[in-house]
Amino acid sequence: MKLSWTDMLKLPKTASVSDFHCVEGWSVLNCKWEGVKFSEITRLAKPAETAKFATFECADGYTTSLTLAELAEDNVLLAYRLDGKALEEGLGFPLRLVVPSKYAYKSALWVTRVRFTNKKELGFWEKRGYSDTADVWKNDRFAR
Description:
Layout: H1 5-10, E1 14-21, E2 27-37, H2 38-45, E3 53-58, E4 63-67, H3 68-71, E5 77-82, E6 85-86, E7 96-98, E8 111-117
């Protein structure tokens, strides 16, 4: 399935307010993201029943992946606006993944492709020793 930018903008838009946490220890509180719930993308794409993960590929070669269960959370978006304005290039324009319960390296910038997979694929930072779960609430920053 391929979606153009116009197609993305025609999908149901939602807003979600959440905190943004960097693995380096800083946070930005009350970010208002606007975009498309990832669950809507899953609904449209109809991945195979064997698919349990999604890998995100980005314009700069970056990758990360998450489980479909994590991506089904109500506040997980493919966002194109932040705090009432179009995303700036440095913040992921035109499209970025937002996963509030994870450290920011799971919220991929400049998303160009999503692949549904039946096996977990480690992303850029996970291959370099960062935690694949990236759970903010457990302070899960580095692989064990």
